[in-house]
Amino acid sequence: MKHKGKPAYWGHNAVRQAERRFLREKKTQSERVNDARKATADVFVMCILSAIYDKYGIGETRLQRVADAANERAERYQQTKEGLPRLVDGKKKTGPELAELDLTADTAAYFPADFILPIHKLPKKRDVAMAYEQRAAAATVAKLYAYGMNKALGFGAERVACVMQEAVGNYQQFREWADSGDYYGYELLAREMGQIMHSPCNVDTAGADTPVFGDTLD
Questions:
Q1: DSSP state of 213
Q2: Is residue 169 part of a domain?
Q3: 184 located within any domain
Q4: Which end of the chain is less congested by CB atoms within 10 angstroms, N or C?
Q5: Given the DSSP bridges, would you call strands 91-93 and 86-88 parallel, antiparallel or unpaired?
C-alpha cells in the first residue's frame, strides 16, 4: 500500500538510514534496549545498596545478606519467567507476566505502590522503548531488593519506601555524572561502593562499545 504524501523514494531512503545507523552502532534496536535494561538494573542495585548504607548505616556483612536474599528471589523470578504460561483469573499469562505478578504479590505489603524511576531526559522518539524498559528494569530490581531488605533486615513499608526514595536520588546523581560519559558515571559510583564495601570496586569496560546513559563512553 502506498502512503500518500510521501515521496516514491521514502521507503528505500528509510531502509538506507536504518542501515547506516546499524553500521555505525553495530547493534540492533532490540540489542540496544536489552543492553539499557541490564545496565539500568545493575546500576540501580548499587544505588539501592548505597541508599541502605546512607540512610541506616547498614554495613558490608548485612548488605551482603540483603543481596543474597534478593538473589535467591531473583532465581525464582527467572524460573517463573522462563516457565510455561498459565491461566490467572481466566486469562492466559506468559512466563514474564507471571514472574512480575508473583513478585508484586510477594512484596505488596511493603513495596511503595507509587514507585517509578524518573526519566532523566526526554527521550528521542527511537529511544522511548528503551526508557520504558529502563523503568521496568528498575521496578523489578527495586521489588527484589525490597524483598531482600524485608527478609534480611526486617524492613517494613516505611523503611523500604525511605530507601527507594534515596535510591532514586542516587540514580539521578549517577545520570548527571554519566552526562559526562558512561565511564565517568560508573567510576564515581564505583568509588561510592568501594567506600561502603571497604574494598576496591573497579569498572569493567569489557564489551563496552556503545554508551548507554551518556553521549560517550569516556
A1: S
A2: no
A3: no
A4: N
A5: antiparallel
- CA–CA separation, 121 and 48 (whole Å): 21
Domain count, the chain: 1
| Per-residue pLDDT tens over the stretch 166-193 | 999 999 999 888 888 877 788 888 888 8
| Single pTM value for the model | 0.80
Q: Directed axis angle between helix 29-56 and helix 157-178, to 10°?
A: 120
Residue 108 sits in which domain range?
A: 33-164
Could you tell me if residue 92 is inside a domain?
A: yes
At residue 131 the predicted structure's pLDDT band, cuts being 50, 70 and 90, is confident
> What nine digits make up the cell of 140?
523489578
Which distant-in-sequence residues (6+ apart) come within 8 Å of 203 by Cβ? 183, 186, 187, 190
CA angle 87–88–91, rounded 5-degree value: 65
Average pLDDT over the chain reads 83
